[in-house]
Amino acid sequence: MSKVDQRISDLARHTYGTWRRQELWKHPLLIEDAEGVYMFDASGKRYMDFSSQLICSNLGHKNGTVMEAIAKQASKLPYVSPGFTTQAAIDAVEALRTVMPEGLEMFFFSTSGTEANEAALKMVRQYKAPSYKILSRYRSYHGATASSLTFTGDPRRILAEQARCTIDGVRFAPDAYCYRCPFNLKHPDCGIQCARYVDYMIREEGNVAGIIVEPVVGTNGRIVPPPEYFPLLRKICDQNGVLLIVDEVMTGWYRTGKAFAVEHWNVTPDILTMAKGCTAAYAPAGVTVTTNEIANFFEGETFDHGHTYAYHPLVLSAIPAAVAEYKKLMDSGLPQRVSDHLKNRLYKLGEEHPCIGDVRGMGHFWALELVKNRETKEPFNVKADKFSRVDLVTNKVATDAMSQGLYVLAWYDNLIIAPPLIISEAEVDEAIQILDKSLTIADEETVKTSVPFSRSSEFGTS
Ligand SMILES: Cc1ncc(COP(=O)(O)O)c(C=O)c1O
Question: How far apart are CA 38 and CA 112, in angstroms?
Fold first, then answer.
């Protein structure tokens, strides 16, 4: 074993790998450098980043403007207590206010998406007391702490429940998952039952304070809701006095083509949370934004929340720089052009690979849901397989792609296609060429049918 390999093994022996059995954390890949849409390992091997790391490196790697802003702040004033304020905070809020949907005006800054949602939970429960119940959806991820995992629907909650690391007062609403409609209905004849059932839940449950939703579901499937869903959900919340929290941790910052995904449906939530993209991952930010109505409530009430690193100047210094870079990028028209190309290339993959059941998404945020059988939609793997010893088919495809120089994240039933927004058409083609080869691994385990792949996010076109 080389000296470097030995040191990597030692590192693994002395650190906890995230979200995995530790026997699977023996020799992590050492990344030495990253630039644009590529990263490089210690041997110099190049990998295209087709998932923006954890769907956060929206501006790609080594953006000079953002790096410079942080370096400048580090040499000027790296830290003061959140009981003071800084020029970095003033600049960050000013920059954010130029892109926030109208009506969202009050900010709290933390250091992760999880914390952004924790803050939202506390606000909702204080504001709506004595109502306290939170509705979420099964296809969701909202963070790693006890409370945010409780209102997460994915397999990570199941383990947290077994470890008794959850809170009370959370209920799950149906997903707006047209490819596998929980009511077995078909849009547009469905009457948007997935939203209507929320109304029924709220009235029957009682004590519901808020509902938290990802506008386009992230890790759990890039599920784009029907166009009627969000306006109807907003109406149901208003009629029942329930707060609408949108978790834009993954979908924010032009990932879906607009600054925030909820803007696709002209709906303003009561609380919006974000993280990842707001610094393009150059610094760990979490942001909770509320309406003035909620802000006014806290004028006379203690905001029972804070952290040592709340309003951290290094984090905040990255925000105005990132905002400026996003604006420049969107003005160039590149992301808009490439997202169309990306969609067409993914649809082409759908035509050529029988393992692809559904191709869905928007902007630079797409899912390839893999199935064993397109006709029955029988999946290769299910939720319970995620943390089992079952060899996930999606993982087999992603591992093969990685060996060919393409980093693409795999969840238990889908591949996460979410490249940095700076990616070019030619770079998309390079990635697709690799995926095209890797997907044959799943094709071999597929029952051949004559059923075409589904395009479940193409509402109104079929
Ligand atoms: C929708 C959503 N919410 C919250 C989180 C948690 O964010 P973080 O990992 O920064 O705590 C994530 C992370 O992937 C996410 O995708």
Answer: 24
Which overall architecture, per CATH, does domain 3-62+333-443 show?
Alpha-Beta Complex (3.90)
User: How far away, in angstroms, is 444 Cα from ligand 1 center?
Assistant: 34
Domain boundaries, the chain: 3-62+333-443, 64-329
- Does 250 sit in the ligand 1 pocket, CB within 6 Å? yes
Protein residue closest via CA to atom 9 of ligand 1: 113
C-alpha torsion 334→340→346→351, nearest 10: -150
Q: What is the pLDDT of residues 346-400, one digit of tens each?
A: 999 999 999 999 999 999 999 999 999 999 999 999 999 999 999 999 999 999 9
Quick one: what percent of the chain has pLDDT higher than 90? 99
Residue 246 Cβ contacting ligand 1 at under 6 Å? no
Q: Which residue's alpha carbon is nearest to atom 16 within ligand 1? A: 250
Tell me, in angstroms, the distance from the centre of ligand 1 to residue 258's CA.
19
pLDDT digit string, tens, across residues 110-119: 999 999 999 9
Give Cα 197 to chain centroid, integer Å. Answer: 25
What is the position in ligand 1's atom list of the atom closest to the CA of 214? 1
Class (C level, CATH) for 64-329 = alpha beta
User: Which residues contact residue 265 at a Cβ distance below 8 angstroms, ignoring those fewer than 6 apart?
Assistant: 215, 227, 229, 230, 231
> What does the alpha-carbon distance between residue 53 and residue 312 come to, in Å, rounded to a whole number?
23
pLDDT, average across residues 296-306: 96
Q: How far is the CA of 115 from the centre of ligand 1 (A)?
A: 9
Over 60: is that where the pLDDT of 263 sits? yes
> Model confidence over 178-188: pLDDT tens digits?
999 999 999 99
Residue whose CB lies within 8 A of the most ligand 1 atoms, among 57, 111, 114, for a mutation test: 114
290 close to ligand 1 (CB < 6 Angstrom): no
pLDDT in the model for residue 462:
44
Instruction: Give CA–CA dist 378/360, Å, rounded.
Output: 18
